[in-house]
Each structure stands twice: as C-alpha cells, then as structure tokens.
Amino acid sequence: MDHPSGNTQRLVTIAARCGYTAKGMIYITIGWLSMMAVLGMGGRNGGTSEAVRELATQPFGSVLIALLAIGLFGYTAWRLIQAIFDAEQKGRDWKGILTRLGYVLSGLIYAGIAINCVELLLDSGSSSSSTSSHTRTVMSHPGGIVAIFVIGLGFLGVGLRQIWRGWHHSYEKNWHLDEMSRRQRLIAANVSRVGLTARGIVFMIMALFLCLSAINTDPSDARGLGGALSAVAEQPFGPWLLSLVAIGLIAYGGYCLVNARFRNVNA
C-alpha cells in the first residue's frame, strides 16, 4: 500500500495526538471524580458520560467539550486508519484480524462519546443509555444472551491483555524512545504499568457483570465503568480499594498523554 503524502501524514498525526489527549482527559476526570467520592468531596463513581458532564460544568465548559469532541473524533479516525490500513502491521492472520476489529470497535465507542459531547453542546436534552438498557436491547434479539456472554468474555480478554501489556512493557515498542530522556522513560513506564493494570482490573469486573447478566438472563446485572467502580466501593475496605483504582485510572489518563506526545502514529 502506498505511503501517505506528507500533508496526509500530518493530519493523521494531529488527529491521533489530539485523540490520545482527549482520551487522557476523560480517564483523569473519571479517576478524579472517584477519588473525590472516596474523600466525601462531592465526586461520584461514573463512566465516560459522567466525566463529560463534569467537564461541561467547569469554567469555559463549552470550549472544553468542543475540544474534547474534536479530539475524540480524531481518535476515532486514527483507530479506523489503524484498522483499515494496518498502520500497526498486525497482518491478516486471525490474531491480526481480531486486533484490527478491536480498533474499529474502540473507534466506534469513542465516536459515541464524541457524539454525546456534541449533543451536550447543542443542549438536545438526550441522555445516554445505561449499560443495563443496552444489554436488555441485545438480549431481546435471538441469540442475544449468547452475544452478551461473548461480549463479556471479550471484556475479560481485553482486561487480561491490558494487565499483560502493563507488566511486559509491550507498549514501549510504539513509543519514540529516542526522543525520551532516561527519567522520562522511567516515569512513563511506571505510570503506564499502574494505569494499564487498573484499567485491566476494571474491564475484568465489567466482564464479570456482563457474563452474570447472561447466565441469569437479567440485564440489570450488567454494569459499565461507573457500575464497576461502585462495585469496588461496595467491597470490604471499599474506599481504600476504590482509591487505588481511582489513582490507577488517573495514571491511565497519564499513559494516554504519553501516547499523545511520544507514540509513533505513522499511517
């Protein structure tokens, strides 16, 4: 496949870097809100929709949400480029195809968040559907229960993969390490390890609830990111556990910001 022109590559670079920055902002906000909830300072355990609404309440909130929407659409474009043009050179074997399909799914998820930002800016009054309502819709179709169970297994696989990446530093092959000082590498590696581990744990909790909802044929058992954080808070020593997860999600946001600056985004 032909290499992109210089102008095209510059656009891809801008889209990817803005996208990783926007993604980092969301996860930092989610972690911060959970930490504030633990400290009793008005936060709450929520997912991406709650994070977007919180950013909208800040000074110049509309500007923040507009920039967030642009960044997330950029991230969607980068994910689709990764999938369609095989920018990461994953290949066409079954493993490569699954990975590239994962890029598409990731892009669509963040496109949905970007659309949520636009709706918020337009004050359309639409509210994001809950995980349980989405699960109920899928279960209402033939084979829906099996589909939810398979999706749960998919989340489990993603969670385990995140933890593996965090501890084996596989993400470093995507960084321009020659542009980083030794100190920057050390800080980035530690932040990434904590962040990927925390996100992996949260995804595994979400996987558990999705699989349980399929086994019990009860959509209300399904929980998204906010529900997973609430589940952590409900455990013995919940506030301490939630604090650790919140710090981890903030670290994951930091990992996204490292990607925004140092990741190889050649198409």
Automatic annotation (TrEMBL):
Residue ranges occupied by any DUF1206 domain in the UniProt entry: 19-85, 101-167, 194-263
Top-level lineage group: Bacteria
Membrane-spanning parts: 20-40, 60-81, 101-122, 142-160, 196-217, 237-258
InterPro entries assigned to the protein according to its UniProt record, in alphabetical order: DUF1206 (IPR009597)
Keywords on record: Membrane, Transmembrane, Transmembrane helix
Protein name: Uncharacterized protein DUF1206
Taxon lineage: Bacteria, Pseudomonadati, Pseudomonadota, Gammaproteobacteria, Oceanospirillales
